[in-house]
Amino acid sequence: MELKEFGEYVSRASGGAKIIVVSNREPVVHERIADGVQAIRPASGMVTALEPIVRGPGGTWVAHGSGSADRLVTDAKGRIRLPENNPAYTLRRIWLTRKEEDGYYYGLSNQALWPLCHIVYKRPQFSRSEWEIYQCVNNRFRDAVLEEAEGGPAIVFIQDYHLALLPRLLKTARPDLTLVQFWHIPWPNKEAFRIFPWGEELLDGLLGNDLLGFHIQYHCNNFLDTVDRGIEARVDYEHFRVYRGGRPTYVRPFPISVDFRQIGEDGESPRVLKRRESFLKELGEGILETTIYAGVDRIDYTKGIPERLKGFDLMLREHPELRSQVSFLQLAAPSRTHIGAYREINDELEDLVDEINWRHQTEDWIPVRFLRAHHDYYAVLAAYRMCRVLLVTSLHDGMNLVAKEFISSRTDGDGVLILSQYTGAARELTDALQVNPFDLDQRADVMYEAFQMGEAERRQRMERMRAQVERNTVFEWGLKVLDELEKIIPLRTKPDGGGSDDDAALDLRFRRNPFAYCA
Ligand code: ADQ
Question: Is this structure's pTM higher than 0.85?
Fold first, then answer.
C-alpha cells in the first residue's frame, strides 16, 4: 500500500470520528534563522508513519512546541495548519516551561523510563519531583486533547513513553473516546520493571487505552506479565487483553516500518548524488577504493556505537592485511546532550576514534571517519548507498528503522546488513548477519565475514530482505493498527461491557475470584 491509498483508507476507517495524534515530538519544528523562520521536518520514522493518519481525515496533531520560532507562527491556542503550502491538518502545540521540559522530558522520560525499558545495564535515575512534573505535563496534554476532541467522537492515537498517564486521564474524562497507544521502545521483563517506584500508577495509566501496541510479541508478553504481577487486574492471556475496572485493554504487536518505495525513489535522486559529492570532498575520493562499513545513529548509549568501533578495531588487529582496504564511516547525530550519560558517551566516542586511528592509520589512509552532526535525509541516504556493509549493533532497540531504511535505499540490490539480535528488526530480517553486540570477538568475526562475502550471496540476501520490507511498509503498520481497532471496538461497546461468550465466562470467574488470572 502507498501513501495516497493509505490516506484514503484512514478517512474511510475513521467513520467520521475525529483523529487526534498525540506525541511529545512535533512533526514540524519552526526555528529562527538569520533572515526569518525556517520550518524543519525532523528525520523521524514516526512522522512518516503518523502524518498520513492525521492528514487523510483532516485531524489534529497535539505535541510539545519545542522550536525557537514555534510561537511566532501559531494562533493564540498554539494552532497552525500544516503543511503550510497545502493545509490538510492542524498541529496544536503545547508550551512547556524549562522546568517542565527538564522534569518531564530529560528527567522522568529519558533518565528513568528510557534506561528502565532498555536492558543495557545503565542504571535508571528516579526522582519524585520529576515524577510530579511528568504527571503535571501529562495533565497539560489531557487538557489540550479534550479541547481538540470537543463535540463529537474521536480516535486518539498516543505515542510512546512520554505520555503513559494520558490514556487513563482521558478515559476518565471522556469514556467515549477511542484510545490507542503505541510504545516505540521495548517493554522490559517484570523483574526489570519492578524497581520503578510508581509502577502501579504507570500501568494504570496505560490501561486506560483500548488498544496498546508494541513492536514485537515478546514486548507484549513482557507487558502482560508485568501487569499480572504489578497491579490488580485480570490478565486474559488467551485473547491478549487486560481487564481493569471492568474494561479491556487489548495488547498487540505492530512492527513499525518505513516508506519502502519513497526511500528507493529518493535514493536515486540528484540530491543524494550531491550529498555523495560533499562527502567525497570532505573524506577524499580514496575512500571509494576501500570497502566502506557505515553506521547511522543518534548518539545514544543503547545504539552500541563504541561496541561496533571496538569490533572494527579488533578486526584490523586480527587481519592487519585489511589496512588501507576498509574504512568506517559513522554518521552520528548528537542527542539529549543535557543528560550526563549522553555527554559521557560523546567523550568516550571521541577518545575511541582517536585511539583506533592512532593505532592503525597510515600516511594516506584513516580507518575511522566520524561525522558528528544531524545530517539531512538525503545525506543519510547517500551514506547508505556508499557503503558495502551497514552496521546496526544496538544493545537493545524497539525496532530500529535505520536497518529498514538501508534496505529500502539499496535499489542496486547489493550491500550487507550486520544486525544486532536485540533489535525488533532482527525478527523480520533473518537474512542479515546477526550478532550479539555484547560479544566483541563475534562482532569482529562477523565484520570479517561481511568483508569476505561474495557478490552473489550479498545480492541473494539483499533481495530477500528487500522483499520483506516491501511487504511490510509503514502503511501496512498503520493499517494493522486501524484494522485491529475496528475488530475490538464492537466488543468494547456491547451493552454488557463484555464481548464474546468467552468474555462472559471469564467475567463470571473473575467476580468469584479476582486473582484467578494473576497466578
Ligand atoms: P530511535 O531510537 O530514534 O527511535 P531508529 O528507529 O533507528 O531509532 O530511528 C532513527 C531515525 O533517525 C532514522 O530515521 C534515521 O535515519 C535517523 N538518523 C539517525 N542518525 C542520523 C543522523 N546522524 N543524521 C540524521 N538522521 C539520523 C525509536 C525507537 C526505535 C524505533 C523507532 C520507531 O528507539 O527502536 O524503531 O522509535 O518506532
Answer: yes
